[in-house]
Amino acid sequence: GTKLLNHVFDLCAKQNISEIYLHVQTNNDDAIAFYKKFGFEITETIHNYYTNITPPDCYVLTKFIGQAATKK
């Protein structure tokens, strides 16, 4: 997971992508901690995002990368 995420960050920097986001189920504490370790922040909660799992809610985790991150 770490290698893949670092690869994504490298690709985003090369393509001048300044923000990436992902969805994580609200009860997935391990995934939330993993992404926070890489600088992601919870920026939104979407209720009833999932239709076949419980809980159905998700967090949107966002990371600002490249130049946008240095301007924060």
Automatic annotation (TrEMBL):
GO biological process annotation, one example: mitotic sister chromatid cohesion
A Pfam family per the record: Acetyltransf_1
InterPro entries according to UniProt: Acyl_CoA_acyltransferase, GNAT_dom, N-term/lysine_N-AcTrnsfr
A cellular-component GO term for this protein: NatA complex
Gene Ontology terms, MF aspect: N-acetyltransferase activity
Keywords from the UniProt entry: Acyltransferase, Transferase
Domain N-acetyltransferase: start-end pairs: 1-66
Name this protein carries in UniProt: N-acetyltransferase domain-containing protein
Lineage per the UniProt record: Eukaryota, Viridiplantae, Streptophyta, Embryophyta, Tracheophyta
